[in-house]
Design goal:
The structure holds 2 protein chains of 2 kinds. Chain A is α+β, with helices and mostly antiparallel strands. Chain A is built from 8 helices and 21 strands. The model of chain B has no long low-confidence stretch (mean pLDDT 94). Classes of the chains: A alpha+beta, B alpha+beta. At the A-B interface, strand 1 and strand 21 of A face strand 1 and strand 21 of B.
Chain lengths: 382, 374
Amino acid sequence: MYRESFTIPCSIIRGGTSKGVFFLENAVPPEGELRDKVLLSALGSPDARQIDGLGGANSLTSKVCIIGPSNRDDADVDYTYGQVSLDKSMIDWEGNCGNLISGVGVFAISNNLLKPVEPMTTVRIYNTNSNKIIHVTYPVKDGLALSEGEYSIPGVPGTGAKLKVEFFDPSGSLTKKLLPTGNTKDLIDLGDKGKFTVSIVDAGNPVVFLNAKSLGLIGTELPMEIENFKGKLELLEEIRSVCAELIGIVSDKSLALSKSPAYPKICFVTDSKDYVNSNGDIIKKEDVDLVARMASLQKMHKTFAVTGAICTGAASKIKGTVVNDIISKRAMASDTLILGQPYGPMEVTIEMADGIILKEGIFRTARKILDGNVYIPYSKVK
Amino acid sequence: MYMTKYPCVYMRGGTSKAIIFHKKDLPKDRSLWKSIFLKVMGTPDVKQIDGMGGTVSSTSKIAVISPSEKENVDVDYEFFQVDIVIPRVDTSANCGNISSAVGPFAIDEGLVKAVEPITIVRVLNTNTNKIIEEHVRVENGKAMVYGDEIIKGVPGTGSRIDMYFENPGGAVTGKLFPTGNKKDIFDIEDYGKIEVTVIDCANPVVFIKADDLSIKGTELVELNNNKKVMEHIERIRCMVAEKVGFVKQWQDARTQSTSVPKVSIISKPQNYIDMDGNEVKENCMDICCRAISVGSVHKAYPMTVAIATGAAVRLNGTIVNELINQLEGKDIIRIGHSSGVTNVDIKMKDSEIIKGGVTRTARRIMEGYIYIRD
C-alpha cells in the first residue's frame, strides 16, 4: 500500500538546559546524507520557526542524539550528538552536548540497552563526536531511571533527581590538545576593529575565552542585552572565525560560519561581581568565582553549555589563561569552580594529577518529556 | 514517585503547532487540566525547556477532542492557549490555525469514518460555540499529507484543508453590524471626520480606506514608524470600541481592548513587493489590505480578519463593497496582504453570510505519550 510518510520511534528528553530528540541507532539510517535528511525532516529544518517538525526554533532545542549499544569495554552505550541548524539543511556532528549527556541514561535504560541496578546505576557513555568517556549516575527504581528529586539547576524551573556527570580525560576533545595553539594566550588582530587577547582551550569542547573588558563589556550583561548591542555578535563571530582557522578546525576563517558554526564556542569572562540573573534575582559576588557568558551558533547562549563549563574549569587551572587571570582566591585553592552564568551559579569539579586533568564533574537533572513515533514524509528523504 | 503519562498527538495546523488530546484520556475532573496543560508546555518558563512549548504563542497550544453528542456534528473541539511566562491558560477564543488540524486528527484517530477522496468533518469549537466544516483529502483511509497548497510561513506544500466557519456573523458581539450601521462617520479630534465600516464576522473588524489616511495602502511594517498615521488608526479603533460597547470611554480601549476590534486598511488592487521580497500583481487580488493587530502592521493577514473582509466585500452598502464593486455574486475573494495573497470563500444566502471559508494545511508530526511531573 502506498504511504506518504513513515514513522521512527524516538523520545524527546530534557537534559540539563537542553531539549533533544533521542533515537536508537538501529532506528535511523547509517551515518550519511540519508540519515541527515531524515533527522532534518524530523526537526522541521531548514525553517527558522521549525513549524513543521519537533524543533523548538532555538539552538537549545534543535538537537538530536543517536544512542546504541557500545562495543567498547569501557562503555555501555555509544552516544552521537548532532546540532541541527535552524535555517540551513545542515547538521553539525563535530561537537558534544554536555547537557544532553544527562538524558542518555534515561533513554538507554528505558530502551533496555543496559541492565540497571537499584538504587543507583552508573551509565558509561562513549561520546563518538569527541571520542571521550562520560559517566552519568542515575537513581533507579523498578528498572527505570527516576527523574523526581530535590536538586535544582540554574535555567530549569523546579527540581529533579541530582545526576552526577563525569567527563574523563576531557582534554583535546576535538583538536587532541588541551591548548590547541600551544599558547595560554594568543593575540587576534582584526585591523581597524582592534587586537584581542584570547585563550583557546579544548576540554569537553574547544572554547575561545576573552576578558569581557576587551570587548567593551562589563561581563554581567544578560544575553538579550548583549544581542541588542550593535555589532557585538558580529565581532564575537569574527574573533571565533579567526580562532577556528588558527586551531585547524577550518582551512580558512571565511569557512567557519558555514563549515563549523558551533565549534569552537566563544566565551567572555570577568572577575566575580554582583549581577541580576535572567529571572531578575540578584546573584552575589561571593557566590561565584567568575562571571561568564557564552555565544553559541552566532547567538548568545541563554544559559551556559556544560562542555563550555567543563572547558572553563580546565582553563581556570591553567596558569596564564584569561580565565585563570580573573578567578577568585577561593577557586585558586580549590578543586571546584563556580561560574556565574546568566541564570546563576554553576559548579564544576576538576580532578588533576601532575598537571593533567583526569576528570571533571558537574551535576544535572534530566527528564523524559514525550516518547512515541515521529512522522517523516517520504518526499523529504528522496 | 513516577511521572504520569497521557497519550497525545503533536500536530501542525497552519502556522501553529499543538499537543492534541482525546478528552477520554484526560482526567474527568476538568479542574486538573490547567495544571496538566502548564506542565505539558513547560510554563511558566521563558525557555519552556521542561515541556513541549516552543517559546512563542503559536507553538504553546493545546487542543482537546471528543466525539460529539450534538446532531450534525462529528467532534467537539476545545482550544487552550497556554501562556509562556505566566501560569495562565486562556480559553476565551478559538485558534483558526489549530482548527485545521482537528479534521485530520479526527480521521486518523478513527473518530469519523474516512471517505475518499474527501472526508467532511463537522467540528464544534466549544470556545466560540461555532461550527467549522472541514473538507479533508483522504487516501488509504488517512488524511493526506502531500498536496500543492502553499501556506505562508510553512516551508513546502501540503494537502489542502478547506475550512468553512458557519454563521460567522456576530461571533463576538452577537451582531453582524455591531454599530447598527453599514457605514459610520467618526469625528476624530485633531484629524477630522472619517468614514468606516465595522463588521463582526469571525472577529470584529474596522475597515478604513487607505486614501482617507493619506497613505497608499501597500505599506509594510515600515508603516509602524509613521506615528501620525498609526495614532490616527488607533484613535479610530478606540472610538469604535466605545461605540460597540467594548469599553466605556474610548481612551480605555488603548489598554483594555487591544486585540478587538481589529483594523483593516483597504485599497483597490495594486502592484507591490511583499515582505519576502516577492512581487504581488494587482490582477492576482480583488482587494488590497493591511491588517493592524495590537498596534502594529500584521506580517500576514489573520484568518478571522480575512473572513470579515470577504464578508464586507460582499455586503452591499459597506465602504469595502463600494470600493470594490465589480464582484457581484463571486464567492472567492482574493485578498492581497503583507506577505502575499489569501483567498476566502464567502457563501451567502440572500443577504446573510452562511459560511466563511479559508484553506490551510496540517500535518501529524508525532504521536505517543507525554510525561507529566506529579
